[in-house]
Amino acid sequence: MSAEVSLSFYQPEHNQELSTFELPKEQLRFTALPLTALKVCEEDQSRHPVVILYEGKPAGFFVLHHGPGITPFTENPNALFIRALSVHPKYQGKRVAKRAMLALPGFASVHFPFCDELVLAVNKKNIAAQQLYFKTGFEDRGQRRAGNIGIQYILQLPL
């Protein structure tokens, strides 16, 4: 039987575990560490930090963003944009990210009933992340965007 993976909105008690996140340089070029992303969330109420729990312990992190700040990625006013996905290295290889992305549509439907689509941007060079997103139902409809470190594919998952 596989270990339980669930999603929870960030709570202060998650801070200690999240502060230990370190990512290899190759991964860090594509995402932000949880504490860095949390600082941005504190200043922007349209960003909602989410913790990926593995057997009840923080194992990963991402942000769900809605509103005008996501218009560079989608024109859908009912979309949620996924930002800053990371999984702590000690939990990588345990299918934590895959199970979190599979759980996300249900989580989004409960907490953001207006949402009818999940959207994200993934760097052209981030092959591992692309594979994860395609395996969990995200679609490439041909939309591209210039990012800070190269071309990004904009992927969508209709809900």
Automatic annotation (TrEMBL):
<dbReference type="InterPro" id="IPR016181">
    <property type="entry name" value="Acyl_CoA_acyltransferase"/>
</dbReference>
<dbReference type="Pfam" id="PF00583">
    <property type="entry name" value="Acetyltransf_1"/>
</dbReference>
<feature type="domain" description="N-acetyltransferase">
    <location>
        <begin position="7"/>
        <end position="159"/>
    </location>
</feature>
<protein>
    <submittedName>
        <fullName>GNAT family N-acetyltransferase</fullName>
    </submittedName>
</protein>
<dbReference type="GO" id="GO:0016747">
    <property type="term" value="F:acyltransferase activity, transferring groups other than amino-acyl groups"/>
</dbReference>
<dbReference type="InterPro" id="IPR000182">
    <property type="entry name" value="GNAT_dom"/>
</dbReference>
